Amino acid sequence: MACNNFSFQHGQKKHLYRKKLLTLYTAALNGDWRSAESIIKSDPTFLNSSITDDYKTALHIAAGAKQTAFVKKLVNLMQNQESDLDLQDENDNTAFCLAVIAGSVPVAKILMKKVPQLALIRGGKNSTPLFIAVIFGRHDMARLLYRETESHLKHLELEHLQHIFFTCIETDMFCKHAYLSPPLYIYL
């Protein structure tokens, strides 16, 4: 009988845990800080734990959903911001990369203010955030990242620079924004 009781209690705990994960996921997606905060206060490990099968954290979800106020509050709660902000999901993307994909410049600025080197951490398929912005046609994000990483471009592999350059042309970024800063082709 004791074994059955343990199994029942274990099943209940598992159900409650999954319910918290789903609630936190939904809260991050919709910017519902009140719901997220109560879960995080009840168990602070939810602050930087993966909450999806592909290892996304609440920060990944909120950043990808352009939930600026939520991201700001979440980041301010993080004690070890550098290691929390560079957590990668199953596809090697940080929350910053998901903000880049979404084209959320305000979220990217919040994250870069806390950990400036996020703009240099490669995401999925070993792509720099600048390349990710370019390939997704995120003009404002690409402009921001170009300015933030310009001094590091000379350290990138020639092939990666060529991919950035030609993708800028393909996404009609190169001609529109060539006047903003020294042209990328000087590094090729």
Keywords, please?
2 domains; Ankyrin_rpt-contain_sf; mainly alpha; Serine Threonine Protein Phosphatase 5, Tetratricopeptide repeat; 61% helix; 188 residues; 0% strand; Ankyrin_rpt
Topology:
Elements: H1 2-30, H2 33-42, H3 58-64, H4 68-77, H5 81-85, H6 95-102, H7 105-114, H8 129-135, H9 139-149, H10 158-170, H11 174-177
Task: Note down, in words, how this protein is organized.
This protein has helices spanning 2-30, 33-42, 58-64, 68-77, 81-85, 95-102, 105-114, 129-135, 139-149, 158-170, 174-177. The mean pLDDT is 90. It is elongated. Helix 1 runs parallel beside helix 3 (58-64), helix 3 (58-64) packs antiparallel against helix 4 and helix 8 (129-135) runs parallel beside helix 10 (158-170). It has 2 domains: 1-121, Alpha Horseshoe (Serine Threonine Protein Phosphatase 5, Tetratricopeptide repeat); 127-188. The protein starts with a helix and ends in an 11-residue tail after the last helix. The chain has 11 helices and no strands.
- State the share of residues found in helices, binned by percent: 55-70%
Radius of gyration, rounded? Answer: 20 Å
Task: Write down how many β-strands occur, each being a DSSP E stretch of 2 or more residues.
Answer: 0
The number of helical runs is 11
Give the CATH H-level superfamily of the largest domain: Ankyrin repeat-containing domain
Tell me, what is the CATH class of the largest domain?
Answer: Mainly Alpha
Quaternary structure state of the chains depicted: single chain
Strand content: under 5%
CATH topology of the largest domain: Serine Threonine Protein Phosphatase 5, Tetratricopeptide repeat
